[in-house]
Amino acid sequence: MEKKIILVTGGTGLIGKAIENIVNEDKKDNEEWIFVGSKEADLCDKKSTEQLFEKYKPTHVIHLAAMVGGLFHNMAHNLDFLRNNLHINDNVLQTAHENNVIKVVSCLSTCIFPDKTTYPIDETMIHNGPPHPSNYGYSYAKRLLDVANHAYLEQNNRLYTSIIPCNVFGPHDNFNPHSSHVIPGLMRKLYDLIKDGNTEDKIFTVLGSGKPLRQFIYSLDLAKLILWVLREYNSVEPIILSVDEKDEVSISKVAETLAKAFDFKGKIVYDTTAADGQYKKTASNSKLRNYLPAMQFTPFENAIKETVNWYRSNYNIARN
Ligand code: NDP
Fold first, then answer.
1. For ligand 1, atom 6, which residue shows the shortest CA distance?
2. Which residues in the chain belong to E strands, given as ranges?
């Protein structure tokens, strides 16, 4: 069997760690996996990217590295999100091409779709209108990955493709209150709130109305799907990797599920003076379901419980 050397950029992050976990359970003799973070190479820099590819000589790349953040971090840093991600993506794809990498799987996101759209969104709608103003820097940089993939195919006959995950959560997430996504952000808040005593007078404040709806995928479920894409999915066209539409949950449901997982005894309050972001961004996973009709996702409550347990046991090493 053909030997594959698979380089995972962003290998130290939430999704990279989940892939490492799944690969360790499902090892294939012909696959060698390399997980790298920013300490090993600064992918904003072309020379540093070239040295990384020279060192490991990958045949395949799962490209996860990106400047990533939640709503409030994006709103304040659209220029940085645009420039850093443009540089990272151009350096990785071009260096992969120069080194004859056979396949690259890059990562888009359901939050880069047009703000004004019909629902559910699907893979054909990425470029149909401007993204939500809160994260246009990140969104345009990500959209150009899809443009580049098509251009690499057309001009150089490369199979460089992309996946579109919905919101991801799980062990090894970023729990820093200034840059985290909603689930790890709320987990950190709850943890801090009850570490000195879990009493009924504690108030758990959730920013926004609690009404927006989101689809959340557990990082370990997503990791399994990414392995399938790497091994079996051979089209340049992006594919949405999301839970089913019926599994969409409100932010208030997220807050309640977290409070239950922490056994929080106080009160949940919604600060409606804070921004809500997009009301919903429901994505259709019917393309994925056509390939994998039997795929079972971990129930939301169970995945939250596992993540909370991980965070409690690993608070000292978590990205706080
Ligand atoms: P994390 O923030 O957990 O990890 C980001 C990774 O990128 C880290 O390994 C980090 O390295 C690396 N990185 C960042 N900047 C650089 C750089 N300049 N050079 C080299 N490496 C760099 O991200 P996630 O795992 O959450 O996200 C992975 C991918 O999935 C991203 O492309 C993101 O856009 C996409 N995505 C994420 C979603 C989510 O909800 N989390 C939803 C949809 C898509 P280090 O930590 O060592 O600095």
1. 10
2. 4-9, 31-36, 60-63, 103-107, 159-165, 167-169, 203-207, 213-214, 216-218, 239-241, 249-250, 267-271
